[in-house]
Amino acid sequence: MGIVTPSNKSVLELKGLHLYHSGVSNCAMRVRIALEEKGLPWTSHHLNILQKEHITSEYFGINPNGVVPTLVHDGKVIIESDDIIEYLDITFPEPSLRPPDGPEREVMDVWLRRATAIHLKAVKTHIYEKRIRGHMSKSAEQTEQYEKLQKNQSLLDFHRKSNSDSFTQQELDEAKAVLDECFIELENVLAAREWLAGDNFSLADIAWIPTYFTLHVLAGYSFDGLSNVVAWAKRIEARPSYTVAVLDWWPPAMVPLNDKPS
User: Fold this and answer.
1) Does 163 share its domain with 73?
2) What is the pLDDT of residue 159?
């Protein structure tokens, strides 16, 4: 479940819940929402990824992929947002954010893993193309440091392309097609129920609302014709956890391409 052994041994001494995160990271939003829904106290270690504060040997020693979020719980290090929020629900079971074992749990698992599976090839590719291109390039020094620290080949390939504006049109079209397919399917699912996995708000909803938010705000992705998805998003936006975990951490300087969801 995403548990790693850090080479930065200082985190092994941390007590309680510590989250390494960024305000603009949709993956970090998931963890903050889960923490707020459960009412858990946690210590913030905020990294401004726009300023490349995560590209250090100290942080790669905590998370070997050099990405956010990372959760440290009493010295145990968990990476990958889907694994983190599932870990939180298992470790702190009340209130539960997972349906009981059965068909609804299986549906939740599918949507939870799918959100992670499309993150790099679709969500990040689309956002980088629509909003980040030309605005977040690494300096030569940062690029050299990143190349030295990063051992994950998929992340290396992605950032080499994003740093040189070299996504092909086919890659961009495929990313948009994946997103369209997912949200059309979500639209159909939400025609029959209020939440993605059944009658209750769950980790599936937590996994997908940050994707909705960042695509809308950063990339100008249109949800026209997806009235069930928009209504679902508004139900989540009305929850206190959304304001605290998403909006309160959102950098004011990140001007939306669309009106920010209310």
Assistant:
1) no
2) 83
